[in-house]
Design a protein that fits this description.
- The chain is of the alpha/beta class.
- The chain folds into two domains: about 270 residues, 4-Layer Sandwich (Metallo-beta-lactamase, Chain A); about 180 residues, Rossmann fold (3-Layer(aba) Sandwich), CATH 3.40.50.
- It is built from 14 helices and 22 strands.
- The strands form four sheets. The protein has a seven-stranded mixed beta sheet.
- Strand 9 and strand 10 form a beta hairpin.
- Helix 4 packs antiparallel against helix 8.
- The protein is globular.
- The protein starts with a strand and ends with a strand.
């Protein structure tokens, strides 16, 4: 069996791994690459393989850096099955449609600016109809339900505890005269999540491929993070400022809404207007409510015995552009949660354009920002950032709380590996910036001295 590492190697975006076994080609993930514009366009438009020779796709979860290029894959000729969990299918269907609409709107906006400079227009990567076509190829199954996907390959999903429906991918493979188990971790949750169940241990692992987003870092403890959110928001509201929270529509938005709900109920926050300004976030929250089978016992009890954990009387969900635009003229203190978390697309960039120059305001990051993204530039302390191609001074207060991350830190990833059983002959460390991947690789070499630990490079091929 050969594994081709075609994305999210020594970086966190564009997850894509091609497995060749028994003359078949199985693609794990098909994510959008985010980073420098020219490189992103080139890597997202052009696949490093013949799309028509892919036999099946397996998707671990619905974040765009894992599923966002599926419409392009199908548009270019892939017509096989895409396997995922039920919740992942529901989330991916709205995320891909939203991605296509954002690309269309952004392309129109940028093209108008380019036209004034006598430059050619930009073209979206794919259309909403391409997204809909891809969703038609999804095949959904529950956790712990094995299914035959290609010759000699049986797939089973295990709960990953990362976002709703997120799965570890277990491949039981029969190749010639040997049988072995390959585990792709997908993105691994931290455990003790306020909404989701803990990652489920997997037994008998022969080969492991593991994410390393925070492979060399420690998160702030979650209880302290809730108090810190309350403090930062209170201080901003007290000076008549606005709190702008860039947030991933799936996972982090629901987490921060639930936290704000708890803080408000406890009297730790005043009942100021709060807005979730993202059609995708609104739709994703509705999907969350549909899949309570993925919830842990605490939030399931909250939902059953109290009220909607993702709603309160001072919270408004916004779909319409006109309502979103009205927020720009809002004079009173408020909290605005908007996508995307890395500030690379969507309405968040408009909110940043209108609020990042006011020192009374707070820009609060609660998730990871990949290198070279707008969010990473703001977090790096740049005094000026480009938004829609124009420079804007950064005068607002900038804060980051990474304990809301859905990714395990170095100790939680180590605990995850310790929970697995099996020889783990080779371990591949992916989905992390170079420093994080190498740090986790070194940790795992000490933890598993009999395993060969590799942090593969982009386009590297390994035989197992």
């Amino acid at each position: 069996m050969q594994i081709h590492f075609l994305g999210a190697t020594r970086t966190t975006t564009g997850s894509m791994y091609l497995i060749e076994v028994n003359g078949q080609r199985l693609l794990l993930e098909c994510g959008l690459f985010q980073g420098r514009r020219d490189e992103s366009i080139e890597r997202n438009r052009n696949f490093p393989f013949d799309v028509r020779q892919i036999d099946a796709v397996v998707l671990s979860h619905a974040h765009l850096d894992h599923c966002g290029n599926l419409p392009n894959l199908c548009r270019q000729g892939f017509n096989g099955s895409i396997y995922c969990t039920f919740a992942t299918r529901d989330l991916a269907s709205i995320m891909l449609e939203d991605s296509a609409e954002i690309q269309r709107a952004d392309a129109e906006f940028v093209s108008r600016k380019r036209a004034k400079q006598n430059l050619p227009p930009v073209v979206p990567l794919y259309s909403p109809s391409d997204a809909e076509r891809a969703v038609r190829q999804f095949i959904s199954l529950n956790y712990d339900r094995p299914i035959h996907v290609t010759d000699g390959v049986t797939l089973t999903f295990r709960d990953a505890g990362h976002i709703l429906g997120a799965a570890q991918v277990v491949l039981d493979i029969r190749e010639k005269d040997r049988s072995f188990r390959f585990l792709f971790s997908g993105d691994i949750g931290r455990g003790h999540d306020e909404i989701l169940r803990d990652p489920e241990p997997v037994e008998g692992v022969d080969f492991l491929q593991i994410e390393s987003t925070y492979g060399g870092r420690e998160h702030v403890a979650k209880p302290g993070a809730n108090a810190e959110v309350g403090r930062l928001v209170r201080e901003t509201l007290a000076q008549n400022g606005k709190v702008i929270i860039p947030s991933f529509s799936v996972g982090r938005t629901q987490d921060i809404v639930y936290t704000l709900h708890q803080l408000t109920d406890a009297g730790d926050l005043p009942k100021v207007p709060m807005f979730v300004d993202s059609p995708l976030s609104v739709n994703a929250t509705e999907v969350y409510r549909l899949h309570s089978e993925c919830f842990n016992d605490d939030i399931y009890r909250f939902l059953r015995e109290k009220e909607n954990p993702f709603g309160m009387e001072n919270l408004t969900y916004i779909r319409e552009v006109a309502h979103s635009m009205k927020l720009n003229s809002l004079k009173e203190p408020a909290v605005i949660i908007s996508a995307s978390g890395m500030c690379e697309a969507g309405r968040i960039r408009h909110h940043l354009k209108n609020h990042i120059g006011d020192p009374r305001n707070l820009i609060l990051f609660i998730g990871y920002c990949a290198e070279h993204t707008l969010g990473a530039q703001i977090l790096a302390g740049n005094k000026t950032v480009n938004i829609f191609g124009e420079p804007h001074p950064v005068r607002a207060r900038i804060a980051s709380i990474d304990s809301f991350s859905g990714h395990g830190d170095k100790h939680e990833l180590t605990h995850y590996v310790e929970s697995l059983t099996g020889p783990m002959q080779k371990i591949f460390v992916v989905h992390g910036e170079t420093s994080q991947s190498l740090a986790l690789a070194e940790t795992l070499r000490s933890l598993k001295p009999h395993s060969e630990v590799i942090a593969p490079d982009y386009l590297q091929t390994v035989t197992v």
